[in-house]
Amino acid sequence: MTTEQSTKRWLPATLLIAACAMFAGCTADGDVPPGGVADDGGGDGGGGGSGGGDPTLTCVQPIGGAGASTTGSVSGLCVGCAVQNPDNAIDDDPDNFATLSIPVGLLGGTASLLIKAPDGVAYPAGNVGGTTLEIPAGLLALDLLQNVSLDFMLDDVEVESIEDPALLNLSALGIPLLGGGELVALSAPATTAFDAVQLNATAGVASLLSNVNVFGGCGEYVETGSAAAR
Fold first, then answer.
1. Per-residue pLDDT tens digits for 149-206
2. Which end of the chain is more exposed for a tag (fewer CB within 10 A), N or C?
3. pLDDT at 73 over 80
4. Residue 218 to residues 41, 53, 104, 127, 139: CA-CA distances in angstroms?
5. What span, in angstroms and rounded, lies between the C-alpha atoms of 199 and 70?
6. How many Å apart are CA 135 and CA 140, to the nearest integer?
């Protein structure tokens, strides 16, 4: 197992929102049921939100701040797997990202990125937590969902693991990225308090998933009518 540990500051929410505004738009395509992904249609998507128009997914509690940390790790027979620049998921640059690398066609290995809040910070049960990441151009949302999972941690102990794709929410943030990818929120409601989220990407023979770029962790995503922050 290889491990990288790092600690950096958190970019204030106002700057994150301003950075988000530089892109083509930051609205989600609507609420997406578990295991689904928002389409390009206009707004009849399962969720509701108040007022007119589609709801926007916003991270109102980014995991960061002085004392926040990340840990990248590799487990199983994952020759060639790596977690690159894990600290980028909590640094000051909203364009930076950590990368989970998995060779295409490999079976059985897992690359993981843990994003932990500063000591004394925890998020309550019921919060929708997760990570903001990129779906590469040409990769189907279903392929991503079948090869990733989320863990919620508290005091360095796993308190919940969500591996069933049907229990994961994948919501498009409507932010195009260089290279044709798209920024999305991978999330799930936590049934217990947590202070860290861990994204796991697992290699599969039939999977086209080779790299997962992670832009940040979130202690609470909500649906709002304002521009989304990472």
1. 999 999 999 999 999 999 999 887 777 777 777 888 999 999 999 999 999 998 765 5
2. N
3. yes
4. 26, 24, 28, 10, 23
5. 11
6. 8
Tokens describing residue 100: 């989970």
> Three-class SS of residue 142?
helix
Token code pair at residue 155: 């005091």
> Which is nearest to 133 in space by CA: 59, 76, 196, 55?
59
What is the DSSP secondary-structure string of 66-130? TT-EEEEEEESS-TT-EEE-GGGGSSS-TT--EEEE--TT--S-EEEEEEEPPTT--B-TT-EEE
Q: What residue spans define the domains of the chain?
A: 4-224
Q: Indicate the burial class of 34 (C-beta count within 10 angstroms; 0-12, 13-18, 19 or more).
A: middle
Mean pLDDT in the chain?
A: 75
CATH architecture of 4-224: Sandwich (2.60)
pLDDT digits (tens, 9 = 90+) for 77-94: 777 889 999 999 999 888
Distance CA 70, CA 46 (A): 34
Rounded average pLDDT over 124-134: 96
Q: Confirm if 228 and 28 have CB atoms less than 8 A apart.
A: yes
pTM: 0.73
